[in-house]
TrEMBL record:
<dbReference type="InterPro" id="IPR002347">
    <property type="entry name" value="SDR_fam"/>
</dbReference>
<feature type="transmembrane region" description="Helical">
    <location>
        <begin position="6"/>
        <end position="28"/>
    </location>
</feature>
<keyword id="KW-1133">Transmembrane helix</keyword>
<keyword id="KW-0812">Transmembrane</keyword>
<dbReference type="GO" id="GO:0008202">
    <property type="term" value="P:steroid metabolic process"/>
</dbReference>
<protein>
    <recommendedName>
        <fullName>D-beta-hydroxybutyrate dehydrogenase, mitochondrial</fullName>
    </recommendedName>
</protein>
<dbReference type="Pfam" id="PF00106">
    <property type="entry name" value="adh_short"/>
</dbReference>
<dbReference type="GO" id="GO:0016491">
    <property type="term" value="F:oxidoreductase activity"/>
</dbReference>
<keyword id="KW-0472">Membrane</keyword>
Length: 337
């Protein structure tokens, strides 16, 4: 009996030590990941910068002092004009279509010509192209055509983009950041959305999961080059926002601390930028860009409490999640009536 008791105590001690070691390793990993590189004069290329999330991220990074090349499909579009009105010398709007090799070639050439003396290459390439699908077949859309376009832009475009930018990312030990699929830790749009997911979200999700698969392969291939591949996972709330039309109308202010030649008061002006990501979510974007050892994934969520709520719902029994869903749909119905 005493021998069995001794073995039980030894086993419990080993379990406690194992848990303590795991916690210590986790904390050390987080501590290393939080150490940030000095911003200095670093260059970032962003695709689909004329979208709402692209405009917000481009303007935010430019206000931090990064030299941002905002790739847009049409330099005369409303989204491009919104970026130009920001008035920052750190923000350059360039034409970029990831489905065309010629466009990628000229965009990379334009970025390379603006490197400062001593700058080795690109610090980050952020691939946001492929956000949103306008309409489903139920409303006169062509789902098959949209899926082909979504895969061409989101997945094949990513492959073309990394091929064109690889020498410059490798030279600067930069990073590739993509907008990935739903984080999978919630009930999806069933909780946060209107309850009508529709085919449009299916197209968006299919393209994003395909991008995740390609990113996993690139992560292994680019590791020898010292290039981390980071995925930004929108939670269910942001998955809805990125896919919904009409687009959200919330406004937040971005203040530029940079002076513009010929505009002495430019540093005092604020330009309105339509908000998609909350300040809490933007912190995750900053970590992905500035961390010396970035995680492979970061979750974009409005707040810490909403993240905890999604996790609790995802881990709860079906009867509980169904009750939450029913209550949410009832609240949504009462709000719209």
């Amino acid at each position: 009996m005493d021998g069995q008791l001794m073995w039980m105590l030894v086993l419990q001690l080993l379990v406690i030590i194992s848990v303590a070691v795991c916690i210590l390793v986790f904390m050390l990993k987080k501590l290393v990941g939080r150490s940030r590189v000095p911003m200095g004069s670093k260059t970032i290329l962003i695709t689909a910068a004329d979208t709402l999330i692209g405009s917000q991220i481009s303007a935010h990074l430019a206000s931090m002092g990064f030299r941002v090349f905002a790739g847009v499909s049409d330099v005369n579009s409303k989204g491009a004009q919104r970026l130009k009105s920001f008035g920052s010398p750190w923000l350059h709007v360039i034409a970029l279509d990831v489905t065309k090799n010629d466009s990628l070639h000229y965009a990379i050439k334009a970025v390379r010509e603006h490197f400062h003396a001593g700058e080795k290459g690109l610090w980050a390439v952020i691939h946001l192209a492929g956000t949103g699908v306008k309409t489903s077949s139920l409303n006169g859309g062509d789902d098959e055509h949209q899926l082909r376009n979504a895969l061409e832009v989101t997945v094949v475009g990513m492959l073309r983009l990394i091929r064109a930018s690889l020498p410059h990312l490798s030279a600067a030990k930069g990073r590739l950041i993509i907008l990935g699929a739903d984080d999978g830790m919630s009930l999806g749009l069933r909780v946060w959305g209107s309850g009508a997911i529709g085919v449009t979200h299916g197209v968006w999700t299919a393209a994003r999961f395909a991008a995740e698969g390609l990113a996993s392969g690139l992560r292994a291939q680019l590791r020898p080059h010292g290039i981390p591949v980071v995925s930004l996972h929108p939670d269910a709330y942001y998955a809805q926002k990125l896919n919904e039309f009409p687009r959200p109308t919330t406004i937040y202010e971005v203040r530029s601390d940079c002076s513009v030649e010929g505009k002495p008061d430019a540093a005092l002006t604020t330009e309105p930028v339509i908000e998609v990501l909350s300040p809490y979510a933007m912190k995750a974007v900053e970590e992905a860009i500035l961390s010396t050892a970035p995680e492979s994934t970061y979750v974009l969520t409005p707040s810490a409490s909403s993240r905890i709520k999604s996790m609790m719902i995802a881990l709860s029994p079906n009867c509980v999640s169904s009750a939450v869903l029913k209550q949410h749909k009832l609240a949504h119905y009462n709000h719209t009536v």
